[in-house]
Write a structure and sequence with these properties.
Layout lengths: L1 H20 L49 H8 L5 H15 L3 E5 L2 H12 L2 E2 L2 E2 L1 H15 L1 E8 L8 E7 L4 E3 L7 E4 L5 E4 L4 E5 L15 H4 L1 H19 L5 E6 L3 H18 L8 E5 L6 E6 L9 H16 L3 H4 L12 H11 L4 H16 L4 E5 L4 H23 L5 H10 L42 H15 L5
Parallel strand pairs: 10-11
Antiparallel strand pairs: 1-13, 2-3, 4-5, 4-9, 6-7, 7-8, 10-12
Helix pairs in contact: 1-4, 2-5, 3-5, 3-9, 7-9
């Protein structure tokens, strides 16, 4: 036990040190290690560094596949700062995923511990830890439609042991046309790094069929952009109307001099200050001198149009946000289920069930498959384990039904008890360690399963060799020679 604890302590120290030092990371020069560091600060889109842009553009900026810090991606990342309901929907989605439970499965305890630490020590700039890493990752994925994770390894070789994971700023990443080098990353010294396919994980949402010629991806933010912009304009309008930061009307008053009007306004303001009231400016008054009876003509500038239903627009936007992100609409606005237009409580449960296969579920599948193939060895497996009590109940009922079926098959002599155990292990009802002999190893494998290693097969720590054309030709020649009796 003492030896095991010592090994775990060494693994923890090694993984934590690797995550901080970034020895082989493309971001190693992005963070100062003492002293003075000089770097160039890019201009973000059409805002300019440090500048503020009060309104979102009517349409997203044009797609540009050949540039870093594109205006399109910058605009999409800024949407959450302009529309509060969209920001709330993003917060709900990101919080839900970053707090979801996950598990590392491995028959080797030390590898299981190392895999857990690699995830727990993943970084997002100066922030370290799975939650911070996944928050930055998902904000990138949901807004821009892609997210990039750097895999830092002990050496530059394919299959070398993974030491750390780093979230990469999407504005500093450019997706290329080369599958061997899918990402170009520009660091803060404006040096461009070529990221090979085994050094990076690239996540995409609704990958475009033109593969970059017309577009690359389509994000949740892009699909919701017109709703986001509409709500942001409405919220701006209401704020200006309530706060008085814009003229609400033009008032032409005939028969009144400017001096008389100014004296009246000043007297009124002094009186309100004494009472502790706050005066909002709401109209621009234009006095028209003349010896005629006082007449008033009003020209409204900020009137709400006929048929304007703010609540309906908000509800429509929330449903749009939930569908595009892949959330239950009740997660975005719990009041929706109580309204007649959105159905009863039973219908709300149906909507929740339907949302489970949308949006973020696609991302979860991408993450699980990428992690198991590119990050962990063949003896180690990552799975999300987050589920509701209702899901657990349904799972238990299915397991009970499956066990009853196998029991009936054993009684009728169709299968043996050992074969039934094999079937239950394959279904995930029992751990694989319960098997004495796996008689169903050649049946099926699911998308997140890993092949069972048999004796004599490749060891988990060994890198999976990548076939090279020259090697394949030599192997083919040796086989043909052997078959012809010419080789050994």
């Amino acid at each position: 036990m003492a030896e095991s604890n010592g090994s775990n302590g060494m693994v923890e120290t090694a993984v934590a040190t690797a995550a901080v030092e970034r020895k082989r990371s493309v971001t190693r020069d992005d963070y100062a290690k003492g002293g003075v560091i000089h770097f160039m600060v890019p201009t973000y889109g059409f805002w300019g560094q440090g500048a503020t842009y009060s309104m979102l553009p009517a349409n997203l900026p044009a797609y540009n596949r050949y540039a870093f810090f594109t205006s399109r991606d910058t605009t999409l990342l800024m949407t959450r700062h302009h529309e509060a309901l969209w920001a709330a929907a993003l917060y709900t989605a990101v919080s839900k995923m970053s707090s979801a439970a996950w598990e590392i499965e491995s028959s080797v305890p030390l590898r299981r511990k190392r895999a857990q630490l690699v995830l727990q020590m993943a970084t997002a700039g100066a922030f370290r830890g799975w939650v911070h890493f996944l928050q930055a990752h998902l904000v990138s994925f949901l807004n821009t439609g892609y997210a990039v994770v750097e895999i830092e390894r002990e050496t530059k070789a394919y299959g070398s042991r993974v030491t750390a994971l780093h979230h990469l700023n999407p504005l500093r990443c450019r997706i290329t046309d080369n599958p061997e080098i899918p990402i170009l990353y520009t660091d803060r010294k404006m040096r461009v790094h070529e990221m090979k396919y085994h050094d990076v994980l690239v996540f995409g949402d609704m990958v475009d069929p033109t593969l970059g010629e017309y577009g690359m991806v389509q994000s949740s933010g892009e699909r919701s952009y017109q709703k986001i912009r509409l709500l942001s304009v409405i919220e701006r309008f209401i704020w200006e109307k309530v706060s008085g930061n814009r003229a609400l009307s033009l008032e032409f008053i005939q028969g009144l001099t400017e001096t008389t009007l100014s004296d009246a306004i000043e007297s009124s303001e002094q009186d309100q200050k004494k009472r502790g009231a706050i005066a909002y400016k709401g109209a621009v008054v234009v006095p028209i001198p003349g010896d005629v009876p006082i007449q008033r003509v009003s020209i409204p500038l900020a009137e709400i149009p006929d048929g304007f239903d703010y609540r309906a627009l908000v509800d429509d936007a929330n449903v749009n946000y939930a569908n595009n992100i892949g959330l239950d609409v009740n997660d975005v606005d719990p009041r929706l289920a109580s309204r007649q237009s959105f159905g009863s409580g039973a219908q709300s449960l149906i909507l929740n069930e339907k949302s489970k296969g949308q949006g973020l579920e696609s991302w979860k599948t991408q993450w699980t498959n990428n992690a198991n193939f590119w990050i962990f060895d063949t003896a180690t497996k990552f799975v999300f384990s987050e589920s509701s009590l209702d899901d657990e109940l349904k799972k238990t009922q299915v397991q009970e039904r499956r066990t009853a079926v196998h029991s009936a098959q054993i009684e009728k002599g169709i299968i043996t008890a050992e074969q039934a155990k094999n079937l239950l292990v394959d279904a995930g009802d029992l751990p694989r360690e319960f098997l004495d002999t796996d008689v169903t190893a050649g049946t099926t494998i699911s998308d997140d399963d890993k092949p069972i290693e048999q004796q004599g097969e490749q060891k988990p720590d060994q890198a999976v060799p990548v076939p090279v054309p020259e090697q394949q030709e030599r192997t083919k020649a040796r086989v043909e020679d052997a078959l012809n009796g010419c080789g050994s």
